[in-house]
Write a structure and sequence with these properties.
Blueprint (H helix, E strand, L loop, with lengths): L2 H28 L1 H12 L5 H20 L3 H18 L1 H5 L11 H13 L9 H6 L1
Helix pairs in contact: 1-2, 1-3, 1-6, 2-3, 3-4, 4-6
């Protein structure tokens, strides 16, 4: 694969995964009561709507960092850890994926994408904030 195609492929992966995380962060900002319920059910942690907003802003900043290739080791790694923890928290739904839980299956290829992006982060040098500042 030539360098241009690899750069485009990584860009698509980066923007897609960052966009996925961006939608979850916007959901926390638009409907924080949903985040409160999710944290209680899946993580067994009680949070307030104010905490949901804080988490939403943090995830929003993280998703933008991922989409722009800013501080790649940290942002890609944190995105991976964040998604891995949510995938692990929903393991019961993944063990019974059909019927009402079929949407949880999508978390597996997203997790694979985050792992791949983290592993190839050093090849992600074009069209990134890090790449712009490195010049």
């Amino acid at each position: 694969m030539n360098a241009t195609r690899l750069s485009i492929a990584i860009l698509i992966l980066r923007v897609g995964l960052g966009g996925f995380l961006l939608l979850w962060s916007i959901d926390k900002l638009v409907a924080p009561e949903g985040a409160v319920a999710i944290h209680q059910f899946f993580y067994h942690v009680s949070i307030t709507t104010k905490i949901a907003y804080v988490i939403g802003v943090f995830e929003l900043l993280l998703s933008l960092a991922i989409m722009t290739g800013f501080l790649k080791t940290y942002s890609y790694g944190l995105g991976l850890l964040l998604h891995a923890s949510s995938t692990i928290a929903s393991y019961q739904q993944l063990l019974s994926p059909f019927g009402g839980n079929h949407l949880f299956i999508a978390g597996i290829p997203v997790l694979a994408g985050f792992i791949a992006l983290f592993l190839i982060r050093r090849q992600d040098t074009v069209w990134t904030v890090d790449g712009i500042f490195r010049k």
